[in-house]
Amino acid sequence: MDRDFGPFFLKFSTYFPYNAKLCLNGHEYAKRQLSQKGIGFQALDNGVLSCDDPKRLQAICDGLSADKIDALLRKWLRLLPHPYEARDRKAGYRYQISILQAEFSLTQVLDRPVTGRVLFEEVIRENLDIGRPSQVQLIFDRRVNKTTPGRFRTRIITDGVIPSLHIDYKNARVKQYHKEGRALRTETTINNTRDFGIGKLLKNLPALRQIGFQANRRLLDVQKISHDCSIGEDAFDRVVRPAEIDGQRASALRFGDKRVQALFTVLVVFSLQLRGFTNQEMRVLIAQLLGLDPANYPVGRMTYDLRRLRLHGIIQRIPHSHRYQLTPQGLRIALFFSRTYARLLRPKLAEIMPQAPPAGSPLRTAFDRLANEIDARCEEQRLVA
């Protein structure tokens, strides 16, 4: 544990020429410096979640130089026993640092972590071709041709439920993932500096840093997403979660609730009625969809539903009347929710259920194949079903 660098390790080989390996973490260095300077911060594993003085933090990170790393080694070589004694050092035998592996990371902390997970999943889905040579050469600013070694591919690796995106270039790799549910982490790891025409000695660290950090930024520039997924997430949440508008509380309009689906279906019917609709007109159709007698459908229940539709912004009252009309946003939500449930979720779910009669549905065939493969793997490993 070093005062300035925090945890690190230094390993010596036990046979000639007694190679050694020094491993340190720049994030730990930054945390130690922040603590010594009395700057408040909150850690995020091997990163920083928040900091009272972000500019000072960035200056600390930029200040981690080759000279400081070399000074760390010299300091501990004086303190630790190692194969080269004083007479060996006087004869000119000294350790010199070369870069075996260097990792450069960009941690973008999100103010809405859950939406960040949705964003990253969409980034993965829409950028599965980012490992192609045409894309990789944009990320690393290096020409890729037929003789360039390495496999050019995009890999999605899932650890539990956490996916990560991996892109390779020669012996370098870019990894991107959602870190601890709070930040988008982009890391470029360089395992051979000569892949970029740079020597391995520590003095080449500044040039290597430039390549690593630029690769992180270029990856973000190359990546694209066809829509703003946070807009859809917000719109869905506003409907399916309770709302409070001007001190008035409205219960949620749950997507799969029969009564809610009936409300959306009837609203679509009334969407072409320019004069709007009344409580009574809505009540008759709602009762029919729910299989109830319209004459006995409670007026208070319909009033309750109209109120929560209004507070959720689905409908609005026509001024100086007891009639309502859909809002432009409400029409889109009513159409999408009702059609998605009736034409996609309900019929497709029926196709894949085990008790459904066999049919030639591609979806059913895919699910049956998946179930058979799982059973086969369990049998292969002699697992009890």
Question: How would you describe this protein?
Answer:
The strands form 5 sheets. A 5-stranded antiparallel β-sheet has the order 5-9-8-7-6, with helices on one face. The chain has a two-stranded antiparallel sheet with strand order 1-2. It has a two-stranded antiparallel ribbon with strand order 3-4. Strand 10 and strand 11 form a beta hairpin. With 385 residues, the protein is an alpha+beta fold. The chain folds into 4 domains: 1-97, no CATH class; 98-226; 245-350, Arc Repressor Mutant, subunit A (Orthogonal Bundle); 353-385, no CATH class. The longest helix is centred in the C-terminal third of the chain and has 25 residues, at 328-352. The chain is built from 13 helices and 13 strands.
Summarize the structure.
With 385 residues, the protein is an alpha+beta fold.
* Shape designation: elongated
| Count of folded domains | 4
The averaged pLDDT comes out at 89
Across the major sheet, the strand order is: 5-9-8-7-6
Write down the Rg.
Answer: 31 Å
What is the structural class? alpha+beta
Low-confidence stretches: none
Number of discrete helical segments = 13
| Residues in β-strands, percent | 15-25%
Give the SSE order as H and E letters: EEHEEHHHEHHEEEEHHEEHHHEEHH
Q: How far do the termini sit from each other? A: 49 Å
- Quaternary state, please? single chain
Q: What portion of residues is helical? A: 40-55%
| Main sheet overview | 5 strands, antiparallel
User: How many E strands?
Assistant: 13
